[in-house]
């Protein structure tokens, strides 16, 4: 069973379609990245999943349940929206103790100590949250969201407004949560670099529709035929090497890509034969890499085609 299931979900506001026939699933233990431009409908999807907003048509399930109608299932879910949900006048520990009471957390003192250590705020436990930096508040917000050991946590833009160092802390924290607490993480994010590093699966939402839904690995693998980039010890040999490669039966194309050769192969297993042919022809090879596109390129391609009305 998938931890999150969205099937044929549509939603409009004031006659304007925001989500149109959106479907995807998130498996147990995955870190899922939900991507899309501003106003694409990412937060709307989360609100519908949490049962805070009614779907138009379609069906959503979290842990196999409809959270709008299931209090017990809601307790198995954590959520962090951009405002962190913290009271500025209360201390870090006081905020967590307040939520521990609401959630009925067992052994709250122990859990609070554990989480303050996890988010590296143990030495600030008694300071009012109003004195914290944006990054510290975000980390405490994440601790708040997972206080009751949810099985799945929804994080809406956890890195927004953070400097690169704080973004990295949040990224490491999410990975740690997934590993240590075996939590499924549903991440709304505009930070493609962050998503590429930590997410196993992504969906790209644009123009109200899912434009791509796949593992990061599959999405970033070179599209169409497999390709490798070959760097020669002497880049001046590029043109001659390209001619040699172009004559090989298992190579479908070769282009100079900066100082390297970008070779498109007829089949994925042809790389050793390509290397052998180049070495046999007297070329000296510095490096061979499987060619892949960045998540940013793929994202812009999908969002661009959606904006173009595709
Ligand atoms: N309660 C509401 N009433 C009317 N329109 C709404 C409501 N909630 C969301 N919208 C509209 O739905 C669209 C999607 O908003 P949403 O917040 O889901 O986008 P998002 O993808 O999370 O954007 P961002 O990345 O900027 O946070 C926006 O045009 C927004 O104005």
Automatic annotation (TrEMBL):
One of its GO terms (molecular function) is ATP binding. InterPro entries: AAA+_ATPase, ABC_transporter-like_ATP-bd, P-loop_NTPase. Keywords: ATP-binding, Nucleotide-binding, Transport. Transmembrane segments: none annotated. Signal peptide: none annotated. Residues 4-232 form the ABC transporter domain. Gene3D superfamilies: P-loop containing nucleotide triphosphate hydrolases. It comes from the Archaea. Belongs to the ABC transporter superfamily. This is ABC transporter ATP-binding protein.
């Amino acid at each position: 069973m998938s931890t999150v299931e969205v099937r044929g979900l549509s939603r409009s506001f004031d006659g304007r379609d925001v989500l149109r026939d959106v479907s995807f699933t998130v498996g147990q233990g995955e870190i899922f990245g939900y991507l899309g431009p501003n106003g694409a409908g990412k937060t709307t999807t989360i609100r519908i999943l949490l049962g805070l907003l009614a779907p138009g048509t379609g069906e959503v399930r979290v842990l196999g349940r409809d959270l709008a109608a299931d209090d017990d299932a809601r307790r198995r879910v954590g959520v962090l929206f951009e405002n962190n949900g913290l009271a500025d006048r209360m201390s870090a520990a006081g905020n967590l103790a307040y939520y521990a009471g609401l959630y009925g957390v067992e052994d709250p003192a122990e859990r609070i100590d554990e989480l303050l250590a996890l988010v590296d705020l143990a030495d600030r436990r008694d300071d009012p949250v109003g004195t914290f930096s944006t990054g510290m508040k975000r980390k405490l917000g994440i601790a708040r969201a997972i206080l009751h050991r949810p099985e799945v946590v929804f994080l809406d833009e956890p890195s927004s407004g953070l400097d690169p160092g704080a973004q990295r802390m949040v990224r490491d924290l999410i990975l740690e949560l997934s590993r240590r607490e075996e939590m499924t993480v549903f991440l709304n994010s505009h930070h493609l670099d962050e998503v590429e590093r930590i997410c196993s699966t992504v969906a790209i939402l644009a123009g109200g529709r899912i434009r791509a839904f796949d593992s990061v690995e599959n999405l970033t693998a070179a599209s169409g035929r497999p390709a490798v980039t070959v760097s020669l010890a002497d880049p001046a040999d590029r043109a001659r090497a390209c001619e040699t490669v172009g004559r090989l039966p298992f190579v479908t194309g070769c282009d100079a890509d900066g100082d390297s050769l970008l070779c498109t192969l007829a089949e994925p297993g042809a790389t050793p034969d390509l290397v052998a042919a180049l070495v046999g022809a007297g070329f000296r090879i510095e490096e061979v890499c499987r060619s892949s596109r960045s998540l940013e390129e793929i994202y812009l391609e999908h969002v661009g085609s959606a904006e173009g009305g595709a």
